[in-house]
Amino acid sequence: MSDNQETSKVLLGILPARAAEILRGKLARSGIDIACMTNHSTCTTGCSPSMEVWAHPEDAHAIRDLIEKDRIKELESMGADLNLLDKVFDPTQPEATCPACGTQFATAKAECPECGLHFA
């Protein structure tokens, strides 16, 4: 990355090399340019290659939105009910809805009787 590019982009994070390249391709299709570069001093994955992911600060919201859309698409492909994701186990309430399977149950026990999800 040139000095000019370095000063105009911020570090988003460190990803495995393949994941960084996939992200770069997805963002490029949306018109967002990111830089992926290897930096041995920030490598966190041991033997597998990792890359720093750099982007312009003004692209942060668009990048977040694209990643969120991909996350939702993946959850839907697994059959997840997105309406359940906001469900919170509140032991002060008489009933709760399990965010994993949608079962309604009494909060006397901190475990879903259907799927076994445990609420600490």
Gist?
The chain has helices spanning 3-8, 17-29, 60-77; strands at residues 10-16, 34-37, 50-55, 95-97, 104-106. The protein is α+β, with helices and mostly antiparallel strands and 120 residues long. The strands form two sheets. A three-stranded antiparallel β-sheet has the order 1-3-2. The chain has a two-stranded antiparallel sheet with strand order 4-5.
Major sheet strand order = 1-3-2
Give the C-alpha Rg: 20 Å
Question: Helices and strands, in N-to-C order?
Answer: HEHEEHEE
Alpha-beta classification: alpha+beta
| Distinct helical segment count | 3
Oligomer: single chain
Ends apart, CA distance between termini:
47 Å
Helix residue percentage: 25-40%
Low-confidence segments, given as residue ranges, are 1-5
Number of strands: 5
Main β sheet profile? 3 strands, antiparallel
Beta percentage is 15-25%
Overall mean confidence score, pLDDT: 84
Shape: elongated
